[in-house]
Amino acid sequence: MLRVENLAAAYGSSRVLFDVTFEVGEGEFATLLGRNGMGKTTTIKTIMGLVPARGGRVVFDGVDVTGKTPEAIARLGVGLVPEGRQIFPTLTVRENLVATAADRFGRDNPWNLERVYDLFPRLGERHGQWARTLSGGEQQMLAIGRALMTNPRLLILDEATEGLAPVIRAEIWSVLSALKAQNLSILVVDKSIDVLRRMANTHNVIEKGHIVWTGDGAALDRDREKVNGWVGL
């Protein structure tokens, strides 16, 4: 579904990514792990066309999307839940959701308001509330719901549970597990190794702009001490 090949990126003269290579298979749940400042968010932004690639390429479902605009990449079926949520604060919950609604692939059961409210009942209860008045956890639910309303084929979440209360974190993980069961391709940036070890099919560790380790949950268990050293836990 997604193939990142030898990806390089920089901010001005400061190089951040060096030959980053990993894949997310169709229906697969993959992670990108690493300490802060190692290039995780830059990788996501470069995949989405928000940061220009300085080398390598990004291929989505066989289409080379390197150099395409973020909106063109989104239209191909990539949904992003960005770091910091970035909801529309002066719109209501419902307005945030319908603002991005699209079903470009003619699905039998597309994501709509009813399905999102079923997934996150609190959003249904607060459908007329200004987004800026929601709690941090509710705003993250809204950010996920907004991405799902685009009916993505690949859902990318940058720092999916950072700063959230444990009960909200558990709810987010439960939702992602349910989405995985529906064969949605998912790429998650997060630090919750213990939870992700059980959920994800493939893990990728980034260190100083390089992918230094890739493996499944069993390999992660075997190399846990090494991976902890890179992730900083």
Short synopsis of the structure:
Helix content is 36%, strand content 27%.
Strand order of the largest sheet: 6-7-8-3-9-10
Mean pLDDT: 94
CATH topology of the largest domain: Rossmann fold
Q: Topology as H/E string?
A: EEEHEEHEHHHHEHEHEEHH
The total count of helices amounts to 10
- Structural class given helices, strands, pairing? alpha/beta
pLDDT under 50 segments (min length 5)?
A: none
Based on the coordinates given, report the CATH architecture of the largest domain.
Answer: 3-Layer(aba) Sandwich
Give me the Rg, rounded.
17 Å
Tell me, briefly, the overall form.
globular
| Overall strand count | 10
Number of domains: 2
Q: Largest sheet, if any?
A: 6 strands, mixed
How would you describe this protein?
- The chain has helices at residues 40-47, 70-75, 93-99, 113-119, 121-125, 136-148, 166-181, 193-199, 217-222, 224-231, and strands at residues 2-11, 14-24, 29-33, 53-60, 63-64, 78-81, 154-158, 185-189, 202-207, 210-215.
- The longest helix has 16 residues, at 166-181.
- The protein has 233 residues and is of the alpha/beta class.
- The relative contact order is 0.19.
- It has a 6-stranded mixed beta sheet with strand order 6-7-8-3-9-10, with helices on both faces. Strands 2-1-4-5 form a 4-stranded antiparallel beta sheet, covered by helices on one side.
